Amino acid sequence: MAQIVINNLRKEFGSFTAVQSSSFTIEDGEFFMLLGPSGCGKTTTLRMIAGLELPTSGQILLDGQDVAQMRASARDIAFVFQMFALYPHMNVRKNISYPLVSQGMARKDVRERVEEVARILDIGNILDRPVGGLSSGDRQRVALGRAIVRQPKAFLMDEPLGALDAEFRERMAEELRALHDRMGATTVYVTHDQLEAMQMGDKIVVMNHGVVEQFGTPQNIYDWPATMFVADFIGSPPMNFLHFEGAVKPGTGSIRLNDVEVAVPVQAGEASGKLALGVRPEHVVIDDNSPVRGIVTATEYLGTTQIISVATQGGNLKVRAPSSRIVGVDSQVGLSFRQGALTIFDTKTGRAVL
Ligand code: ATP
């Protein structure tokens, strides 16, 4: 097991900077997500942790020891490649044993360790089957078995479920998480899927254009996005932004939004100019008594809830409301915002100021 500290890690490819000085800490035993859109530098970060790519500068402290410039094989970290990459001519037992046999472990010890892994993954009954005829779920378990058999300090996974269809993907995600909870090994997992990151991760790093936008627990990132990028990338539908021009000061407790006074949390930072009020769809309430008005442009039925699109002076926003609340398209509605669930962004820097 291992703690991994990433300290000012940077990677340049020629004149292109794929990862700008990144810093975050992966605690021992955490299921840690590297999340961001395509090209944001998450795979490059993972490959540097693995030792498949050498950083331009910065440190990777594995239990306190800087391994940034060390060979991959010296790091005792397992990179779980494409989950289906098995040796097709070998049976399940041989596939799982392979890393131990190639390390020169005694046959009896190999046998014991493989049986133990098979128990953890519940694949004891297929150990002597060829991998060719296995279901995709079993193939995935065998591939995992080959990764965990060596008991490395940490596991690295790059979109391991990316190729799977939705239903199977969900099941494997649950299995992976359960497996992690049983073994407790530090796991670093790359994904571009915010839902997967929120569901599986203990902590998430959100990256964009090679920059760490935010680092924290799923709840922290969802409730208190540090930047407009994070607010927009996380959540479905994403956070609403209502644009306004003005000033907020610590302790004022309210802002003027198109001539309407809106209360905001009082622990305010200071900002002025072009600002945006960020509010999640579930924190907007259709409220006939509110002076903030808008016109309903569409409704989307989702079962117990619905998403109501409303055009306001400050911009369009989406409201998550119970389906029992009937609103007509083109009708005028009042909107209020739940206290304690608002964020103010400076649109120039994109950063939260409250
Ligand atoms: P994806 O999900 O598409 O893999 P990613 O977030 O994992 O995206 P990276 O693979 O880390 O992104 O790539 C980050 C940027 O670095 C991309 O613009 C990519 O083109 C560039 N890059 C990655 N590897 C190299 C390389 N060996 N040489 C040059 N540029 C590279």
Could you list some keywords that capture this structure?
single chain; binds adenosine-5'-triphosphate; elongated; 2 domains; 6-stranded mixed sheet; 36% strand; Rossmann fold; alpha+beta; 5-stranded antiparallel sheet; 354 residues; OB fold (Dihydrolipoamide Acetyltransferase, E2P)
Describe, in plain words, how this protein is organized in 3D.
Pfam families: ABC_tran, TOBE_2. Belongs to the ABC transporter superfamily. InterPro entries: AAA+_ATPase, ABC_transporter-like_ATP-bd, ABC_transporter-like_CS, ABC_transpr_MalK/UgpC-like, Mo/tungstate-bd_C_term_dom, NA-bd_OB-fold, P-loop_NTPase, Transp-assoc_OB_typ2. GO terms for molecular function: ABC-type transporter activity; ATP binding; ATP hydrolysis activity. This is ABC transporter ATP-binding protein. The protein has 354 residues and is α+β, with helices and mostly antiparallel strands. It contains eight helices and 21 strands. It folds into two domains: 225 residues, P-loop containing nucleotide triphosphate hydrolases (Rossmann fold), CATH 3.40.50.300; 115 residues, Beta Barrel (OB fold (Dihydrolipoamide Acetyltransferase, E2P)). It has a six-stranded mixed β-sheet with strand order 6-7-8-3-9-10, with helices on both faces. A five-stranded antiparallel β-sheet has the order 15-19-16-17-18, with no helix packed on it. A four-stranded antiparallel β-sheet has the order 2-1-4-5, with helices on one face. Bound molecules: adenosine-5'-triphosphate. Adenosine-5'-triphosphate binds next to strand 2 and helix 1.
